[in-house]
Design goal:
mainly beta, five-stranded antiparallel sheet
Length: about 200
């Protein structure tokens, strides 16, 4: 028996697979974000819905950024850019961030193989994925965020402070880090689940 999970395509036709904004997160804001990294809060990254670590698909470390008054500026900034992008390019029915933002660290040998951010269960309401590049491109080798678009691999910009927004059903990966450290934020803006 096969089960289908309907995502619902963007209402806007001829949508762009991903959109990026260079330099949107400023250097002093990136420093604030880096200061959120606390070793005692670090966990190994798992796949959504899984409690078990699977380093054949994903290998990295994360902390969750609490949606508190102290971090409201970050949620507001990323939420605003997601709404702007949605209004111009996708037209999804959005409700907001239903899960905490993840601050992710990739070190040598870390990666995240091809995947979607949308699926069954708790991730079924995700509509837009948002990622922020927090490391200078020369601080690491490998670690490219790549999209599979019409069977062609497209690499996203690596510039520090760049925000990238894309529908959560777009196939993507982070290639293995061969040297250095890459940090990023990932988050998902949700909407009503499709039936």
């Amino acid at each position: 028996m096969s089960i289908n999970y309907s995502f619902g395509l963007p209402l806007k036709h001829n949508f762009t697979e991903f959109i990026y904004y260079s330099g949107l997160v400023l250097p002093h804001e990136i420093e604030q974000i880096h200061n959120l990294w606390e070793e005692e809060k670090v966990i190994k990254a798992t796949l959504s819905g899984d409690q078990k670590y699977n380093d054949e698909i994903r290998k990295s470390s994360v902390i969750f950024i609490d949606n508190t008054a102290e971090n409201d500026w970050l949620y507001h900034k990323l939420g605003s850019v997601a709404i702007k992008t949605n209004n111009e390019s996708y037209w999804f029915d959005l409700l907001g961030f239903h899960q905490e933002l993840q601050l992710t660290k990739y070190t040598e040998g870390d990666f995240f193989d091809w995947h979607l951010d949308f699926g069954a269960g708790e991730i079924s309401a995700r509509k837009l994925s948002v990622t922020v590049q927090l490391s200078d491109p020369d601080e690491y080798e490998g670690g490219d965020l790549q999209f599979m678009i019409n069977q062609k691999i497209v690499t996203a910009p690596r510039t520090k402070g760049t925000v990238i927004v894309f529908p959560s059903f777009i196939m993507h990966r982070v290639t293995p880090i061969t040297k250095g450290i890459r940090q990023s934020i990932v988050g998902w803006v949700s909407g009503p689940p499709y039936r």
